[in-house]
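Let us work through a complete example step by step.
Step 1: write down the sequence.
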Amino acid sequence: MRRGSWVGILVAVVLIALGVYAAIDLARSGALVDGSSRPASSGGQAPEPPAAPSAGGSDHDAGDASDDPAVPADADDAWIDYVHDGDTLFLTDGRKVRLLGVDTPEVGEHAECYGDVAREHLRELLPEGTHVRTVADERPLDPYGRSLLFLFTDDGALVNLELVRDGYAEAVVLEPNVLWADELEAAEDDAQTASRGIWGAC
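Step 2: predict the structure and record it as tokens.
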């Protein structure tokens, strides 16, 4: 066979190979164009899921004093010595305090459902040495000589109301001490509806 014939065959093979390569490259380009192998562009991203509703909804978070009554200007200063149970504590001046407007489950020998939980919660709210503002009502003492008080923390939270609002206590309003009775009873209704604390556990 002539040398020129071999050259012609080689040229033809090279051209065929180039053609096959071009065809493969074109096919790949087409796949990218139709989007089958390319990540979606920013314009084609799926819409983001809707934002989750606020965790609290209409409920109140523990320690949120935004809806609490304002601390009266004549409130007295005091410091926590020891928390006995969910509604009874001692101040550093020696007074034994029974929190007004609330009743928590019993602890100790006659322990009731959620009593220990309520006590530990109050101890967390009012550790020893905590500064509080105290407010008395019409009757300052109970038959056992305990001071009947409302307590406000430095951030303006009314402790009595927080205990009811978060389900650690029931609202118990006894005349003539009816200060903030409406707020306490509304907080209890809200806690019951939401099955918070004792209303869900007991």
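Step 3: interpret the result. Helices lie at 3-33, 115-125, 159-165, 181-193, 198-201.
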